[in-house]
Amino acid sequence: MKKVYTSAADALEGLVFDGMTIAVGGFGLCGIPENLIIALRETGVKDITVVSNNCGVDDFGMGLLLQTRQIKKMVSSYVGENAEFMRQYLSGELELEFNPQGTLAERLRAGGAGIPGFYTKTGVGTLIAEGKEHKDFEGETYILERGIKTDLAIVKAWRGDEKGNLTYRKTAMNFNPECATAGKVTIAEVEEMVPVGSLDKMAIHTPEIFVQRIVQGNHEKRIEQRTVRAS
Questions:
Q1: CA distance 17 to 43
Q2: Is 9 buried (19+), middle (13-18) or exposed (0-12) by CB count in 10 A?
Q3: How far is CA 80 from CA 83, 92, 98, 154, 224, in A?
Q4: Rounded CA gap, 78 and 165, in Å?
């Protein structure tokens, strides 16, 4: 099966449709699949539900899809860096399902592992718990959270080989491995494509079985909040 594609647009060919759900890896602007996000915007797909820790910033990352009104719903844990996100949410144009950050990561991991749900104490007694099943274990109350499985997952890795084995680097480990397993189809964009067999087997974070398509991209690696000391 062909896995290596020459461009992000080619890698998305035949996979997108209106109303689909997409898991997007990364943390802030670190480790996000920049090229695939831009290619997704160019498809014109609409009414999508995006599962991602955050939604980028106004003019970069997932924020680009907010600009074009292609996102119907966000399933996220943090949205504080995006003014357009706030505007659309407060005006009723965008649906939002808030998740505690650890809960969101575990929901994605559970979905990828074939686990339909799990109990957690996080959120008990808060708005997060409303409408969810409660159950007591050893005198403590827990709520049921459902695993997440998406139509598509797009992730970014540091290195990958032609079979789809992936290695992430530092902060990019956040949400990328979980998203990669949660998608029915997973596309990875990598900074560097390496020969099969050259990756240290102990350093492969996502095995090839979870990746259906892979593409090498050029990355801006924008800094989300630049803080400098006065000279």
A1: 9
A2: middle
A3: 8, 17, 12, 22, 12
A4: 29
Residue 228: the pLDDT is 82
3-class SS of residue 192: strand
pTM: 0.93
Q: How far is residue 117's CA from residue 86's CA, in Å, rounded to a whole number?
A: 30
Q: Could you give the C-alpha distances from 213 to 69, 146, 157, in angstroms and in order?
A: 26, 27, 13
Helix (H, G, I), strand (E, B) or coil at 74: strand
Q: How far are the Cα atoms of 11, 80, 128, 206 from residue 187, in angstroms, in the given order?
A: 7, 27, 31, 12
The number of residues in the chain equals 231
Rounded CA-CA distance 127/121 in Å is 13
Nearest residue to 72 via CA among 37, 21, 109: 21
The span from the CA of 143 to the CA of 120, in Å, is 6
Residue holding tokens 């708005």? Answer: 127
Beta-strand ranges (E) seen in the chain are 4-5, 21-24, 48-51, 71-76, 95-98, 117-120, 134-137, 140-146, 150-161, 166-167, 183-194, 213-216
pLDDT, tens digit, for every residue of 180-229?
A: 999 999 999 999 999 999 999 999 999 999 999 999 988 877 777 778 88
Task: Tell me the per-residue pLDDT of 147-175, one tens digit each, with 9 for 90 and over.
Answer: 999 999 999 999 999 999 999 999 999 99
Count how many Cα atoms sit within 13 Å of the Cα of residue 7 in the half-sphere of its side chain: 7
